[in-house]
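Lecture notes, structural biology module. Today: joint structure prediction for complexes of two components.
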Amino acid sequence: MTLDPTLSQIRDGLRPFRRRLWLRRVVRDGTFSLAAVMGLELALALAARIVPLEWGRVAAAAIPLLGALALLVDAVRVRPTLGETALALDGEQGLRDRVSSALEIALRSPDLVEAPLAAEDAPTAEGTATEDAATYARFVRLQRRDALSTLRAADRRAFRPRLQRRPAAVTVVLALLLVPALLLPNPQSDVLARRENQRAAAERQAEKLEKAAERLAEGRTAPDPRLDLSAELKKLARELRERPEDLDAQLARLGSLEDALRARIDPANEQRAAALSSLARSVSRLSSGQDSNPGGDPKKANEDLARLGEKLDGMTKAEREALAADLAGLESTARQAGAEAQAALRNASQALGRGDAAGAKDALGRLGDALARGARNVELNRDLARTANDLQDARRQLADAGKPGNQGQGQGQGQGQGQGQGQGQGQGQGQGQGQGQGQGQGQGQGQGQGQGQGQGSLGGGGSNARFLGSGSSSGGFRGPTAGNKQFSTGDIDKVLADFGRLGKPGDPSYVAGTGGDGQTRQGSGTGQGTPSDAFVPYTGVFQDFYDFAITSLERSTVPLGVKDYVRDYFSSLNP
Amino acid sequence: MTEQAIEPAATRLSPEEFADRARAIEREVGRVIVGQHALVRQTLIVMLANGHALLEGVPGLGKTLLVRTMAEVLDCAFNRIQFTPDLMPADIVGTNILIEEEGGRQFRFQPGPIFANLVLADEINRATPKTQSALLEAMQEQQVSVARQRYKLDPPFFVLATQNPLEMEGTYPLPEAQLDRFLFKLWVPFPAEEDLIAIMDRTTGAETATVEHVASGADLVAMQRLARSVPIAPHVTAYAVSLLSATHPDNERAPGLVREYVRYGGSPRGAQALVLAGKISALMAGRFNVAIDDVREVALPALRHRVIRNFEGEAEGITPDAIIRSVLDAVPPPRVD
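The predicted structure, tokenised, for the full assembly:
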């Protein structure tokens, strides 16, 4: 089929106009899209100032992309047809429907789309249907020629892209509103940062808990309670990873487990450990006659006791009596090491006194076993305590991550005194417990916080005793009982409070604590100590002091800040 | 019933000749009718559309002169019928009269004044409805029936009726069915002052303006035929239909004025009038296609007598022209951006 050349020329002539019309439509719709994007961005920015939107940045980046995508789809959709172009051109340039009529009538008269009429002007019978058809066809051709000439004369710059005034104005206004909405500080940013910190802290604490769980399970076999604890820690770590935002619940879980662990910890574990070590050293010395077990290793002591039992048969009566007396001298230490050890020691001493070598040998064997079991219990308690500390650290880290940036600070001071038993003199700072003879004098610092309750740690007396004994000291901290508090940060304060968050006078929420009396009290006491070497290397006793301090912290209700303070103190002393 | 018809002589015209001849007619009529260009053009459109026109205006505005001049310019047979309350249908269409010839008596049809190419029905609203309805068949079918005999009217056949809007006492307003037969209802405006001065000069002097025949009845028929052959684009036809639809109060595009004050909208004849008059308007403008503007230009005369106002509309003086203008505002030309 050969298309009417005039019609073809009309179609060809319309194509440049179609492209320009298309561009105009894209620009028009682009203005709308831009206004919509600006509006959505502004709405998002305003919403992000009211509620913390963690997906806000993603959405802010996605909105322009979606707008561009919508514009792209729209650009395909609004591509004008030639008929639309003809109508638009007629309207734009006042062509009185010439071009559009030519195209539309061509569609309605497919028989006239082809070649031009060969006999267009051929005579036809007047008043007949043939003449009417010929006249119609002649009009169609005339219309096309008229349309083509009109099209050629049309302004080629038609359909200039133009911005829609209203959406363009709206876009400008929205952009002006958007600038301050984006540039002014957003109060919700802190909330988002806190949440991010919370997630990071949860991840870190989860890793720590998993390491602790692995440490607990390492080399253990059932039915060791540490295996159950390891599984529980792993479960906690998994929950921390899965729901880091559920801070209160996580803190409650950690606290619950920590409380359960602390309930299981023997408060006198370190005393028992010290007593066990002392007893082990002593029995080894009795067996070998020299300081063969300076570390107080229960295994070594067990072996020494076995050798001592072997030597009983060869001892004279006097030697046995001397040995019985030595063993009796260790009874107070054995009492602190445990009832089983005390009973075994007493039985051995009594058997020796009776001259019952076999009974003494058996009792010494039981004493060795008691020492070994005691050592295992000490180790278990230490593991539990360490895990509880890890849980406490995790709680503190999580709570800190969930707290807002402002913190109050406060400090209280007081002096305390440790009372010890034994002989000797000591002076120190911090917390301590002395044994032997001496006077304890110390100065302590405490900090109160939380709900106005302050509690200071004891400033105990140091000791130059060779060995830590079983003496106990107590001292009252005279620091503030109601610490300063600057402000409240909600429920978090009820769970944990920070060290340096105490308030200052003048603050509405400032609650003054009761100050210490500033007096130093000295006390003295006498007790039965063990022979000691006066000088002990610092590195040799540090761990003992550290363990004792940590245990003391765990078995009493001590504010976290003070615990940190004590830990930091020992960390600074750590050789 | 038998039929007697007179076949017209037809000539073939080109669109350019159409426009030239129409302009010549307008020019020649303008030698007598001062001003009133729109009225002359619309009257000519009615004649080229093979329709009828109802001219409404106060006395003395040249309605009768216009029709008479048209008849002279077109070299058509012209009859004037002065409608009065006692005018009977037979006075218009004719009657059988008893005559004696060839030794016997027989009835012979005596054609009435309707048998002309151009009939001026002056003050048509003064005749009774019965007499008015005698025009119905002639206007629609271009024939009359008398005593079971049908008589074809010679083409071209136009009825140009006039009515006086002031003296309504003792008149019989045309029924809607008859109004619908008129292609246009033309409002004859009062001349502007400069036109009045020219009228004074022409009519009070010694010379009387004369016109020449510039077209014949056959030319008019050929022009009518050519006008009907003009192709019209579907979107233009659709626009004419939209305009007509919007005159109906229950149409979704109807403006408030139509919804409130119109009882019935235009009939399909209204859309036919819009399209046909649009074609002629385009040809007279020298174009071969009908534009939407052509349709809008003829909307007022083509629709104003087809819109039937309700009681509120008449009581509040809402004119049909105001209603049609609101329709034109409510139905803008299709626009592609």
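Point to remember: Chain A has a mean pLDDT of 75.
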